[in-house]
Amino acid sequence: MVKGEPLMFEYVLVVYWTMQTPEYIGNFKSCADATQWCQTHCEEAEYTSCLHEDYIYMPAGFVRKEIDNGKGKQ
């Protein structure tokens, strides 16, 4: 990353606590960051999915939550 370059939180983490209850967790800089976050916070999850935001549908009124693993904005 180039100094002064804005951080891009383009990867969406969805956690399935059960297969019937998916939950949007937030946007991350990479799927590696999302996976690292899950190792601490998703022990009870049945399934997790990390996808690039350009390839999924986000509903009207969606509020984006950017998570930087405690290193910045959240």
Describe this structure in words.
The chain has about 70 residues and is an alpha+beta fold. The chain has a domain at about 10-55. The protein has 1 helix and 3 strands, in the order ββαβ. It has a 3-stranded antiparallel beta sheet, covered by helices on one side. β1 (about 10-15) and β2 (about 20-30) form a beta hairpin. The longest helix is centred in the middle third of the chain and has 11 residues, at about 30-40. The chain is globular and about 40 Å long. The model has no long low-confidence stretch (mean pLDDT about 90).
Summarize the entry for a quick read.
The chain is of the alpha+beta class. 15% of the residues lie in helices and 26% in strands.
Contiguous uncertain segments of 5+ residues: none
Tell me the major beta sheet: 3 strands, antiparallel
Number of helices: 1
- Arithmetic mean pLDDT: 88
Helix content: 10-25%
Taken from the alpha-carbon principal axes, the silhouette is globular
The secondary structure category is: alpha+beta
SSE sequence, one letter per element? EEHE
> Ends: how far apart?
19 Å
Total beta-strand segments: 3
Strand order of the largest sheet: 2-1-3
Radius of gyration: 13 Å
